[in-house]
Write a structure and sequence with these properties.
CATH topology of the largest domain: Rossmann fold
Number of strands: 20
Helix content: 25-40%
Number of helices: 21
Shape: globular
Mean pLDDT: 88
Low-confidence stretches: 14-19, 559-578
Largest sheet: 6 strands, parallel
Radius of gyration: 26 Å
Number of domains: 3
Length: 578
């Protein structure tokens, strides 16, 4: 494998097109008709491209104002290369080198499409074990791939290659706004957890602020140019504080973006925007179960709204155009605007008749089938246990065993955490010496910070709540389903025990048991969709444990491992026959 790939470096001089400099290009067979990767760079800045006519491409680069100051070209040559491979490697290099942060990457993000091709897995492996280490030795990269992959800058990068569905949605959004001549209007993108809503939001922010020269058609070029000319004041609205601060850090490190472009719903009142792109729009707040009513009422008054005004109304009042990324199934508390209110306000403004749909599952390796399975199990509509390829889905009878394996996974692969529903009081918030959660012989405390908890130094020894984990990815998630849920065998339904639910702001004023049940099931649906490579589950309530055991693969090394009733019956039947 290693002898297939070479990286040749050349200094770019003022006399670039003189015969002496071009001589090495002419002498090599790949120079005019072989797909290669080229990296132009100086000490601080880099541009990554792919071409099969390297000399002609070089001349184009050097006429570009942003690129002509770059002093070196590195050409990655692979004897087994093909066009699909170099397109894939270009996209990977842009994403990884951007997250590596050694260079400020000049590339736009237009046209980075994730597609399948022959031997893709082999080429991806080659990238990991051969190409990236060679770039590190050349001084073109610094960090290990596993460290980059666990970094928020990698996960939320606007350079993530889009799949076909995401690309079509992105192009359609741009086309609609480019062609729309009205005064105001909204578009809505619907997608369940892990379908890439945040990614499309950051992608659009980067695209708006990029000089683009990569178009499949003239119409796409015209649409984007019209879009960019019309959209000057734009911001990405993130309702959750923790995720907002994370994306501010990401934007700080991306060429053409800055942290001020990521705002809270409260910030939008400060100026009028051409466009607001709203991520997690289902988490926009209404005037219910708030911590600070006076500040909320003050904002409503400034906009001429009554006490019924919401953060959604603030966004509509403060912008000409809006893109809402929305999933009603991820609304987790009464403070969130209701689905009916969202439709009432946004539907009359929609520039298309329907929501755009994001369909592919990008977070969880179990895919969309796993996400649907979780929802069916929580709704008591599933009838059989299912398996999901290599996705590591396990049921634990012993909390100590689950805690141990989460720590082991965190040591080996990083980003493995325990998370739980709000089934325990938060004593440690007032007294850090106090325990919050006691299960069997184990004692835990809730997350000691709300900001960037998963990356905090002690997070592997704590339990994260929904408000610190929503919107984030984990490699492995250990889910503790608390005593606020039980199973009603007679009616085949998961029931809420309100007295065991301790999120005060999450239940005050809720008289309808079904409404509270919806929020709590949504919380667990969100928690169960955090793990990229695996999800481990421990259940506190004995009745619910008996129900869920039927649908999750038990960890056979667990101290308290018990065979399910069906397994015991099968063994008994075999013994009887014998």
């Amino acid at each position: 494998m290693t002898e297939d790939v070479t990286i040749k470096s050349f200094d770019i001089k003022e006399d670039l097109f003189e015969k002496e400099f071009l001589k090495p290009f002419y002498e090599l067979s790949w120079a005019d008709n072989w797909p290669i990767i080229d990296i132009l760079n100086d000490n601080k800045t880099a541009y990554i491209g792919e071409t099969y006519k390297v000399k002609a491409r070089l001349k184009q680069h050097l006429k570009n104002e942003d690129k002509k100051s770059l002093k070196k070209i590195n050409v990655i040559i692979d004897k087994k290369s093909n066009k699909s491979y170099t397109l894939d490697m270009e996209a990977s290099l842009i994403r990884y080198m951007s997250a590596d942060t050694k260079f400020d990457i000049l590339n736009s993000n237009r046209g980075l499409i994730s597609h399948n091709y022959y031997s893709k897995d082999d080429y991806r492996k080659k990238f990991e074990v051969d190409i990236w280490p060679k770039l590190q030795r050349k001084g073109l990269a610094e960090r290990k791939l596993i460290d980059i992959q666990n970094d928020d800058l990698f996960k939320y990068s606007p350079f993530v290659p889009l799949d076909i569905n995401q690309s079509i949605v992105g192009d359609n959004l741009i086309e609609v706004f480019a062609n729309y001549k009205g005064k105001r209007g909204s578009l809505v993108v619907q997608g369940s957890a892990g379908t890439g809503k945040t990614i499309i939001g950051t992608y659009l922010m980067k695209l708006i602020h990029s000089k683009e020269d990569n178009f499949e058609t003239d119409s796409l070029k015209e649409h984007l140019e019209t879009f960019q000319n019309n959209i000057k004041k734009v911001a990405l609205v993130i309702p959750q504080q923790s995720l907002r601060l994370t994306l501010k850090r990401v934007f700080k490190k991306i060429h053409g973006l800055n942290p001020s472009m990521v705002v809270s719903p409260n910030d939008v009142l400060k100026k009028d925007y051409d466009m607001l792109i709203v991520d997690e729009a289902h988490r926009l707040r209404r005037r219910k179960n708030l911590t600070n009513y006076s500040a909320f009422d003050k904002n409503n008054k400034e906009l001429g709204l009554g006490n019924e005004g919401t953060e959604l109304d603030w966004i509509l009042k403060s912008s000409k155009y809006q893109i809402f990324f929305y999933d009603q199934d991820q609304s987790v508390k009464p403070t969130d605007i209701t689905h009916s209110y969202f439709l009432e306000k946004v539907k009359p403004l929609m520039l298309t008749n329907n929501f755009y749909e994001l369909e592919s599952q990008f977070r969880v390796q179990g895919g969309s089938d796993y996400i649907d399975y979780v929802k069916r199990v929580l709704d008591c509509k599933e009838t059989e246990k299912k398996h999901f390829n290599k996705y590591d889905l396990r049921f634990y009878e012993n909390i100590t065993d689950m805690k141990k394996v989460i720590i082991e996974k965190n040591n080996s692969e990083g980003l493995s955490r325990l998370v739980a529903g709000y089934g325990w009081n938060w004593h440690s918030k007032k007294d850090i010496s106090k325990t919050d959660i006691t299960i069997e012989s184990e004692n835990f405390i809730w997350n000691t910070t709300h900001t960037d908890w998963i990356n905090s130094s002690n997070s592997v020894n704590e339990v994260g709540c929904i408000h610190t984990i929503q919107g984030y990815d984990l490699n492995y998630a250990g889910i503790i389903i608390g005593p606020e849920l039980t199973y009603d065998e007679e009616n085949n339904k998961i029931k809420v025990l309100k007295e065991n639910y301790y999120d005060t702001k999450g239940k005050v004023g809720i008289k309808d048991e079904k409404e509270l049940e919806k929020y709590i099931k949504n919380i667990y649906s969100v928690l169960l969709s955090r793990g990229i490579k695996g999800t481990y589950v421990y259940v506190c309530d004995s009745k619910l444990r008996e129900y869920l055991r039927k649908f999750l693969e038990q960890d056979k090394e667990s101290k308290n491992y018990e065979l399910s009733k069906s397994d015991n019956l099968a063994i008994a039947e075999k013994k009887r026959k014998y």
